[in-house]
Design a protein that fits this description.
The chain is α+β, with helices and mostly antiparallel strands. Helices cover 27% and strands 29% of the residues. It has six helices and 13 strands.
Length: 224
């Protein structure tokens, strides 16, 4: 594990280059331990992929060196605890048809598979939310089958509709808000992933599990 400053109000704990379930369980265990009993001065804890970023108030933390020593000790204790729980399982309905999936033919061509095979593969596995970012509530989902790994579009779209389901490299995700984006759009969900009237507003959080459920155009319209 390495610790690196991020500006003058955060430190990044990097647990290594490997991104797999075992490594991610360590990230979640450490983040959970820090959130449940934060060291003095810690204001926020953000787990993502192979790191945990800890934001702090230097006036209350007792200095950078002291905080790092405490974080190292907490990380050692967290590593000796039982594995992190499986996390919530969230089912997300997705219409993979026609105008909802403008890049699905290109993804199929890249994979050398039929469109129906792409849909079956994408909806047939369980994903893990490895990070939230880019825009509020955007989930970076690990676990995409290797056959579906597809490079991002050479030219990003200036506007991607909220609810669009995309593939970017080895990850899949859902755009919670209308925003520019360069991922390959293979479907659309009627489920709102970011609700300003809710607390918290983001439906998903790091560590959640996600399963996509194919729905018809009629089901999509009825949902809306």
């Amino acid at each position: 594990m390495t610790l690196s400053p991020l500006g003058d109000a955060a430190v990044v704990l990097d647990l290594g280059p490997e991104i797999d379930e075992a490594a991610f369980a360590r990230i979640l265990a450490l983040a959970t331990a820090l959130e449940s009993n934060p060291p003095a001065g810690v204001t926020d804890v953000v787990p993502a992929f192979t790191t945990v970023t800890v934001f702090y108030d230097i006036a209350r933390a007792g200095g950078y060196g002291q905080l790092c020593a405490e974080l190292k000790a907490r990380a050692e204790r967290a590593a000796s605890r039982p594995p992190f729980a499986a996390g919530r399982l969230i089912e997300i309905p997705v219409c993979y048809l026609d105008e909802f999936a403008p890049d699905l033919p290109q993804v199929a061509a890249h994979a050398g598979l039929a469109v129906n095979d792409i849909i079956a593969l994408h909806s047939g596995v369980e994903y893990r939310v490895q990070a939230i970012g880019f825009v509020p509530g955007f989930p970076y989902l690990g676990g995409l089958p290797a056959r579906l790994h597809t490079p991002r579009r050479a030219t990003p779209r200036t506007q991607v509709p909220a609810g669009s389901v995309g593939i970017g490299g080895a990850l899949t995700g859902v755009y919670p808000l209308a925003t520019p984006g360069g991922w390959n759009l293979i479907g659309h969900t009627p489920l709102a992933l970011f609700r300003t009237q809710e607390d918290p507003p983001a439906l998903l959080r790091t560590g959640d599990r996600v399963k996509f459920k194919p729905i018809s155009t009629e089901e999509f319209v009825a949902w809306k």
